[in-house]
Specification:
Layout (H helix, E strand, L loop, with lengths): L5 H9 L10 H5 L11 E3 L6 E3 L3 E2 L11 H15 L4 E3 L7 H12 L6 E6 L4 H15 L4 E6 L5 H14 L2 E7 L6 H10 L4 E5 L11 H8 L2 E5 L6 H5 L17 H10 L6 E2 L6 H9 L8 H11 L3
Parallel strand pairs: 3-4, 4-5, 5-6, 6-7, 7-8, 8-9, 9-10
Antiparallel strand pairs: 1-2
Helix pairs in contact: 3-4, 3-11, 4-5, 7-8
Length: about 300
């Protein structure tokens, strides 16, 4: 998941992005989500545990020096996320310093155990995988991680066997597999149909709907929780609507921004458990999480959204 700062550019073009606001963690900790707009939650099929439908990705945004301006801004993002009811934070050893930064910042804030930490194993060989996962736990400040996924199916059979053992031993709560390209969807489906796993993560967006052909249905059928990456198509969706206004009927679903338009389409599919857009901006995070509240589009609304995006 590669971050492109296109949403800010679009907002500036539309005249709604002012100067950067300054937030203090103490101020943000005192804020709570509006009680009349709680985050929608969906159950993890294997246990029934519920998760808020919008989380946070960390590719590039959290690969920063552990101290300094960028890390300070990320503290504000994490505190705001907790205040608004967000929970899932997805990372990977592939994401540079992200795991360490997430662990350090949440521990500094005293909120390390308030999130659902999902990370990945991204290496080859059994012992290398074990060493990497132990390192991830150390960096993220946990003795048990909520979810470990085999990143992009790398040596997935080896790591999945280890993960099943770890789950039995209580070292990880949930296990899964991931990828980020349409070409991998059929392989993901084969695996979730043949293996006992809790989560599958893949790409899905308003203009990249290959997952609707079979994969989303298979996940629902097999009772596998779904995490969605690349919801904004690396910023391409924002570039496509740059300078354009939302259709008037978007208000029927409480949609106030293009980000919410894109995210509500994804969440509108009941097979999706949580979508994980990445951001290092408090305003963008707030906007994203609000997509997980209120009315979701029904099948007619989803079709209207898909038809509309083809016209821009």
């Amino acid at each position: 998941m590669r971050h492109i700062f296109s949403r800010r550019d679009v907002l500036k073009t539309m005249g709604v992005a002012g100067g950067a606001a300054v937030f203090s963690p103490a101020l943000l900790l005192a804020q709570t989500h509006h009680p009349d707009k709680p985050m929608i939650q969906r159950a993890i099929p294997s246990t029934g545990e519920k998760l808020p439908v919008v989380g946070l990705g960390s590719w590039q945004q959290f690969d920063v020096a552990p101290s300094g301006t960028e890390a300070s801004g990320l503290k504000d993002v994490l505190v705001k996320m907790k205040a608004l009811g967000g929970k899932v934070i997805d990372s990977s050893p592939m994401y540079g310093r992200a795991e360490q930064v997430i662990g350090d910042l949440t521990r500094d804030l005293g909120i390390n155990n308030d999130f659902f930490f999902a990370t990945k194993v991204w290496t080859t060989g059994k012992q290398a995988g074990i060493d990497q996962m132990n390192d991830s736990m150390r960096k993220m400040g946990r003795t048990k991680l909520d979810l470990i996924q085999v990143h992009n199916l790398q040596d997935w059979q080896t790591h999945l066997k280890t993960l099943k053992d770890w789950k039995e031993q209580g070292k990880v709560r949930y296990i899964g597999i991931t990828h980020y390209t349409d070409s991998a969807h059929s392989r993901l489906e084969q695996i979730i149909r043949s293996e006992q796993i809790d989560f599958v993560q893949f790409n899905y967006s308003l203009r990249s709907r290959n997952a609707e052909r079979s994969l989303l249905h298979a996940a629902a059928e097999r009772k596998v929780a779904v995490l969605i990456n690349e919801p904004f198509e690396q910023g391409a969706l924002f570039r496509a609507v740059k300078g354009k206004e939302l259709p008037g009927w978007a208000a029927d679903y409480g949609i106030k921004s293009w980000a919410q338009f894109f995210l509500k389409y994804i969440i509108g599919n009941p097979a999706v458990t949580c979508v994980i857009p990445g951001t290092s901006d408090v305003k963008h995070l707030t906007d994203n999480l609000e997509a997980g509240t209120g009315t979701l589009p029904d099948s007619a609304g989803l079709k209207k959204m898909a038809d509309f995006i083809q016209t821009v």
